[in-house]
Amino acid sequence: MPLPKMPSGKASRLTDIAASLPLEGPTEQDKKTVRRARKNKTTELPKKEAALLKPVAAKEAVREVKAEMSKEAASAKKEACAPVSHRRNKNIPDDGKKRLYVLDTNVLMHDPTSIFRFEEHDVYLPMITLEELDNHKSGMTDVARNVRQVSRTLDQIMQHLEGSIEHGVPLNVLGNKEALGRLFIQTTPYPDDLNMLESGKADNRILSVVKGLEKQRSDRTVVLVSKDINIRLKAAALGLLAEDYYNDKMIEDCDLLYTGLLKLPANFWEQHGKDLKSWQKDGRTWYQIKGPMVRQFLINQFIWYEAPDATPFYGEVKSIEGDTAVVRVIDDYTNPKHQVWGINARNREQSFALNLLLDPEIDFVTLLGQAGTGKTLLTLAAALTQTMEMRRFNEIIITRATISVGEDIGFLPGTEEEKMAPWLGAIDDNLEVLNRGGNGTEWGRRASEDLIRSRIRIKSMSFMRGRTFLNKFVIIDEAQNLTPKQMKTLITRAGPGSKIVCLGNIAQIDTPYLTEGSSGLTYVVDRFKNWPHSGHITMQRGERSRLADYASEAL
Fold first, then answer.
1. How deeply is 401 buried, as exposed, middle or buried, from its count of CB atoms within 10 A (0-12, 13-18, 19+)?
2. For residues 475 and 383, is the Cβ–Cβ distance under 8 A?
3. How far apart are CA 273 and CA 276, in angstroms?
4. Are 313 and 264 in contact (CB under 8 A)?
5. How many angstroms separate the Cα of 305 from the Cα of each of 130, 151, 265, 314, 344?
6. Each residue of 71-107: pLDDT tens digit?
7. Which pTM value belongs to this model?
8. N or C: at which end does the chain have fewer Cβ atoms within 10 angstroms?
């Protein structure tokens, strides 16, 4: 029996189907008749039995539409937050042809595994790309390491070559099952017939290869992939298909990046208060909440509700099972009774951040926010409290990426810590604020300042490889300038008893090779967002001064 016809508009589908349901359902005898007909796989039911199926089929239709709408919503959310795929680039027409991606050198330098990221499509390497790789293989920089990794990978793939390279080599011979295409390397020259461009230049030779392949391989859609904006502009002017390398971007729209908090709707307790349970544990109030909105929660996400005529609610999701969540009421650090190294939180997000920074069960914290939101001050206050008072950590280690905002001032003299001192002036500014509230004489303040500085170590990222931090509170400042690979190198230094905090603002990326979507800070926020021992907060309100707040908005 076919299901009732579905209305075209999604919003009206449930309403229309519900309206079509009969007022009286089938009797038990009718249901048995229907089940017997289905069991016997009857294709042509008598008219009476077909009529009996209508309410059952309509209810099934409602369930199917609900499931379909839920699936579409989940798919849309996954589509928005998943790494961007080349197949989703709307600028490239989908003509049904298999694609041939021509890779520029900078793509391989940026991601040495990029040749495996094109799914069922083929990858083509021009000879000039191999020559440029050879020119950049020397040195100890990340680019040189990536180039050497690419060379080793290509060598291993070519060992599986059977027959002529013109027929290509399968890209999955090394175990990369997601790469279903083949690798091609240029074997024939293509003339530099692009008269408007200077001949001999590397970028122009790559464009000549793309033009020649477009004429030669009419069965394929030839696409140039490059991180270089200028070569993509040249390709567009010549009528060639070109695009950026998208697989390094964790998200397409940074407005969809996980914020770590969720505002509850006004009717939340009406929908979820029926099966509500509460209890006291470790001096805190806990709730067990059950309802449809629970499926939107993430572990260690902060949920809150404020209304003029109601008591505000601030909780942290500690566990989720199906449509049931366990929520713990958090400490209110805006209250003067809950001071951290002499300071209080000035807004809701700062209070959430201090709950994460002081939680012994949280090993990894990321704080995003514009200048003046208090990221560094709160982190230092929490670090000093847990190191000097609670004795939870024995040392504070601070590092950051040494990327200049303007012109570089050259080499700096002194030891490792002396060289890093100018880069970490913000730490000194915040330590001055935290020490300013201390009582006693000038001598006493200086003595306490010296004691505090004896517990703080300033380290360079250049010497982090191979180290292990035991019982350390590690602060990574300006983390938006780190690549995902650098971020992995730093986070994997953590040993037992250590805590790592990453601070940054993805709107202030200083390195020319990263964007908001490909930054290492964006990468770890997305990858750690549902791990039980990590937490994240995006801080919105600046608390530095009215001048700084206005400058952030107006400039």
1. buried
2. yes
3. 5
4. yes
5. 58, 55, 7, 7, 21
6. 555 554 444 444 444 444 556 666 677 899 999 998 9
7. 0.68
8. C
